[in-house]
Prior knowledge:
- The complex is a heterodimer of chains A (331) and B (508).
- Chain A has 331 residues and is mainly α.
- Chain A has one domain: Orthogonal Bundle (ABC transporter involved in vitamin B12 uptake, BtuC), CATH 1.10.3470.
- Chain A is built from 14 helices and 4 strands.
- Chain A has helices spanning 2-12, 15-40, 48-66, 69-93, 98-121, 144-147, 153-161, 166-184, 186-196, 198-203, 208-234, 246-256, 261-281, 294-312, and strands at 138-139, 164-165, 285-286, 290-291.
- In chain A, the strands form 2 sheets. Chain A has a two-stranded antiparallel ribbon with strand order 1-2.
- In chain A, a hairpin with a 3-residue loop joins strand 3 (285-286) and strand 4.
- In chain A, 46% of the residues are buried.
- The mean pLDDT of chain A is 89.
- Chain B is 34% helix and 26% strand.
- Chain B has helices at residues 43-50, 73-78, 96-101, 110-128, 143-156, 173-188, 200-206, 229-237, 296-303, 329-334, 344-348, 355-360, 377-390, 407-419, 437-452, 464-470, 492-499, 504-507; strands at 3-14, 17-28, 32-37, 58-63, 66-68, 81-84, 161-165, 192-197, 209-214, 217-223, 255-265, 271-281, 284-289, 311-316, 319-320, 337-340, 425-429, 456-461, 473-478, 481-486.
- Chain B is of the alpha/beta class.
- Chain B folds into 2 domains: 3-237, P-loop containing nucleotide triphosphate hydrolases (Rossmann fold); 255-345 and 423-507, Rossmann fold (3-Layer(aba) Sandwich).
- The model of chain B has no long low-confidence stretch (mean pLDDT 89).
- In chain B, the strands form 4 sheets. In chain B, strands 6-7-8-3-9-10 form a 6-stranded mixed sheet, sandwiched between helices.
- Chain B is built from 18 helices and 20 strands.
- The chains are: A mainly alpha (331), B alpha/beta (508).
- Chain A: Pfam families: BPD_transp_2.
Amino acid sequence: MLDFLSAIFAIIFNLSxxxxxxxxxxxxxxxxxxxLFSERSGIFDIGLEGKMLAAAFAAxxxxxxxxxxxxxxxxxxxISIALALVHGFASITARGNQIVSGVAINFFAAGLTxxxxxxxxxxxxxxxxxxxxxxxxxxxxxGADVLKDVPVIGDIYNHLVSGHNILVYAAFLxxxxxxxxxxxxxxGLRLRAVGENPAAVDTAGISVAWLxxxxxxxxxxxxxxxxxxxxxAQSAGFNRDMTAGRGFIALAAxxxxxxxxVPAMFACLLFGMLDAVAIRLQGQAIPGVxxxxxxxxxxxxxxxxxxxxxxxxxxAIPPKAGGVAYVKERT
Amino acid sequence: xxxxxxxVGIDKSFGxxxxxxxxxxxxxxxxxxxxxxxxxxxxxxxxxIIYGFYSADAGEIRIDGKPVSISDSKAAIAHxxxxxxxxxxxxxxxxxxxxVMLGAEGGFMLNSGLHKARKELKRLADEYGLTVDLxxxxxxxxxxLQQRVEILKALFRGADILILDEPTGVLTPAEADHLFxxxxxxxxxxxxVLLITHKLREIMAVTDKVSVMRRGEIVDTRAxxxxxxxxxxxxxxxxxxxxxxDKTPSTPGRPxxxxxxxxxxxxxxxxxxxxxxxxxxxxxxxxxAGVSGNGQSQLxxxxxxxxxxxxxRVLVDGQDVMADGKVDPAEMRGLGVAxxxxxxxxxxxxxxxxxxxxxxxxxxxxxxxxxGALLDIKAMRDDARDKIEKYDIRPPSCxxxxxxxxxxxxxxxxxxxxxxxxxxxxxVGQPTRGVDIGAIEFIHKRLIELRDAGKGILLVSVxxxxxxxxxxxxxxxxxxxxxxxxxxxxxxxxxxxxMAGVTREAAE
Lengths: 331, 508
């Protein structure tokens, strides 16, 4: 038992595992915040996965062709916003079923990325391998050199805080920024209101549709960043199905966090941690347990979400008007 | 006399429904103007046009004598119109302050606006007697205070014309009186109030002038002081109506429904019915009065077998219901308990079904309607036609979807289905909610007839007038408890205090 605990301890509190956890939680965090804007405005979005995938492909393809990471980012964000607007049109203007629309976007992205990738690049759905200039490289924060030799703090600063690419910093800065937007601005107040009671917003003389469109555009931007991160920051090109369910894990994190930005960050870090541990444990035997199948760790975020929500952290109450199209009542 | 609001030739149709026909209405500045009419007479549509929810097909709206175009709520607010909707337009998990500010934040950043709003609301509270804790979460407030928040919202936006749509439906008589006091203060301060209601006594109590709507038209406008409840009722319905039901004193027989110490919890574990005991005898109507949300619904549902109870005993015609440890609606029906649910759309009818299907709903297993897995459609239709004739259900078509019937006729369908089963006990919730006056008269008569035929009736209604008119004994429910029994001729004030949780002893 002691062996087991110390082995687990050694794996978790290891700078490179923690470092990997930060990198792995970044796309989850961006996607979870993306979902937060949409769902807080009353539009359920299970199409996060599809938007991320399409953005990853667009970013990979654009960066591959132009050789510029920034153009890749722009392409990823634009395509993600476009899909978000499709979902918005289906849910807000056409008042369609939001789940069906989200599923459609997921299928659309899964199919079209492979098809276009094969047609354009003939590499089995992959985009071309990217050189350093076409990727977001690591950024050394000021002072990393100076602190290098300071014990503990220097290590943490050097490995954990410094030396990530710019999208990692963007993701973690997006947390306080989202909080500020939601709770300290007019837009945020209205956004939260429209997700709870759109009629209250309508009778206050605010356009429900325009407000919700703005919310899904926010979702599009953040999903675009998440997808871009996968293909041109974390990897050096797009692979088919490279999101691998992260859009759904992000949704689980969002529910886990009860649709709040800061808890969402911790949920994503937890899930990123599980992912990092799973990678380190791959094929390795844990003393006293043996080799744990990697699928177990992959399923853990979902299992944790269900178990913790069921008994430990209370009920997650979604925005009251979520999933329902707003129709003015004819009385 | 200057006019605050003038409507000229307003016309509005929804498809084939002509909701407002050539409406002309003049509302004097600094007055309380009532608009009465039955459900479906077009009052709400008219108000929605004034507030910019719908745009009129034809006609003109004038404010302070100038024609204005109100294309949306924003324009209405800009023209100084405020509205308190029947269903409050509030965000439950926001504070009072946030709710009031929504849409009038005063800048992109919230902080400066919050500060200003707090000061302004303090002033409004002092000026009009509208005190409410600004930092309380709205969902936690009682409805009377939620309504106050709605009024504050309108005033905060600078409303000079305040429209209230059925404002007293959810209030206790005392809360309603308080509201009327506030409305009078508003009027005396120069605001104009438009009060929409179907309750005639409210009109008499608080308005200066009253307009009556019938079938989309304004049929007459009178000075309130020069008219009477009877005259207004006649104008609303288009014929003379009996506002009182004739009934003889009851002759109670054996107990048919005995409830002892019943406790019911809701899904969240909150006690909704708290050790309630009551008895209904054959040949009497027992009324349960109370403000909506005090456990009457749960009591009724428990007795109908829809909701589990935690402790207590229920005897139907002397037979112990819980003898086998479980209860379900079919068992209660088998024992002779019929149930007219409070919300016919949610529980009483399947609106997309044909009338004849709804007539058999819940009793479809009866051999009368077919054998085995098959339904005898012809028998069902014949049966439905009988009911249509007997209960004067209009239009007389048993194949029409139930959603095409008016509220009153839908209610008659439910009543016909339940009463024609010849029950021992009839549980009735809100028998005349959303029902026009003509149908109310019919339903009330039918319930008295049923009583005189020796059935026991348990009546739940939030309309105190209805309880006092029909019931032979009145029980008052507050916060899950039956707080007392009174004769139906007890004063409204006394019953109102009990409904608000004040017992006579405490009041003295």
